[in-house]
Amino acid sequence: MRITVLTGAGISAESGIRTFRATDGLWEEHRIEDVATPEGFHRDPALVHRFYNLRRADAARAQPNAAHRALARLARHHQLTLITQNVDDLHERGGSPEVIHMHGSLLDALCAGCGHRWPASLVMRAPDPCPGCGKPLTRPDIVWFGEIPYHMERIWAAVEAAEIFAAIGTSGQVWPAAGLAQHARRAGARTVELNLAASAVAGDFAEHRTGPATEVVPAWVDALCG
Questions:
Q1: pLDDT at position 60, please?
Q2: Residue 187 labeled ligand binder
Q3: Which of 106, 112, 152, 203 has the most CB atoms in a 10 Å sphere around its CB?
Q4: Among the listed residues 154, 217, 171, the one whose alpha carbon sits nearest the alpha carbon of residue 9
């Protein structure tokens, strides 16, 4: 069976990684405009690096939970395309063989000048030179607000081909990820939302399973795998 799964911050929350709350415009006590936009990086790259150095350290300390491990098991039984909005590597460490990071990864660095990519160090600094061009334009390889998510052609193709499309731990407030369920449903997929509470796009799903990811995801995988 062809299954496409989209995961959001809710799947990593039980591993101790705080979710982003858009309602107050703050992320870890910082304005989104200051730490998650190209303009914020241009104004104060040192602040942005300090912010993501802390996020990287938090992610390194976190451990995969039962929901991450359940999706790895699902991949062993079905043809799974796993898409995540998360920038941590808990899916990979939980055993998933292939993960599409549509919003980038804390483990990667990007040159804001030439576009060169390389593995990020645990601590990054504004003066760090790019290994490609040598300019001090190193930034986290994270898709910020106002930027285009990665791998969208591959993501749309996986959504269109899916027999089942599931969204796990997503708010339904960040586009284009929030539009994937509607697209999947129009293409004929069975759609299911697994979340602590109904998302902003709950109406796009035919089925809802509500509760902590560490409970509802393993139970859902059990039902699919037998």
A1: 96
A2: no
A3: 106
A4: 171
